[in-house]
Design brief:
Layout lengths: L21 H19 L8 H13 L10 H27 L11 H7 L2 H19 L1 H12 L4 H8 L3 H20 L2
Helix pairs in contact: 1-2, 1-3, 2-3, 3-5, 3-6, 5-6, 5-8, 6-8, 7-8
């Protein structure tokens, strides 16, 4: 009985390869999008799971030929970052639309004015700003937050992508949470 040629042998790292097509990645991207929208709360009207995946695809499609992903984790971490930018851009757009898009703002009732800017929108922008600040100070901590919180990756997956140990990832996660909490608690 002949032994299989090396090219016929299954690749031991096949599970860690980036998705071969968008169809292969679509179910996992939908899971990430669902988690992102649930975490963002009800402050993102007009955006559902499918719309978020498709908008992210449009942003990624223009750059997919110039990007190289070493592993499945790298691909999904980058996709989660793109989804985060889609959500933040939508919240910013809604905030400007709500305020008249540059038109003079006149209210007849202060209760009405208080209801125009939702607290969820402001919170989403504050979290994005805090994460951007964290990225300038401690880039690895920001990567851990993006991969764990935005992409829903486990500590072991993050460790593999970043070339760290699981314990280091857990310490980075704890430190990042403390720093972000401190940043968000400041007025």
């Amino acid at each position: 009985m002949p032994t299989p040629a090396p090219q016929d042998a299954p690749d031991a790292n096949a599970d860690d390869q980036p998705p071969a097509s968008w169809q292969a990645a679509y179910p996992e991207l939908k899971k990430i999008a669902r988690a992102r929208l649930q975490a963002a709360g009800p402050g993102t009207p007009g955006l559902n799971t499918t719309a978020l995946v498709h908008e992210s695809f449009l942003r990624l499609a223009g750059r997919v030929d110039t990007l190289h992903f070493d592993s499945r984790g790298h691909f999904y971490a980058y996709a989660a970052r793109v989804m985060r930018s889609v959500i933040v851009d939508l919240v910013r757009q809604q905030a400007t639309d709500r305020r008249g898009g540059g038109a003079a703002h006149v209210t007849l009732d202060t209760v009405l004015a208080d209801g125009l800017a939702g607290p969820d929108d402001a919170e989403a922008l504050r979290v994005d700003e805090a994460l951007s600040t964290l990225a300038t100070v401690e880039p690895r901590l920001a990567q851990v937050v993006e991969m764990r919180y935005f992409a829903g990756m486990a500590d072991a997956e993050i460790a593999q992508v970043l070339g760290l140990t699981d314990r280091t990832v857990r310490r980075d996660w704890d430190k990042a949470r403390l720093l972000l909490r401190a940043m968000l608690s400041q007025p």
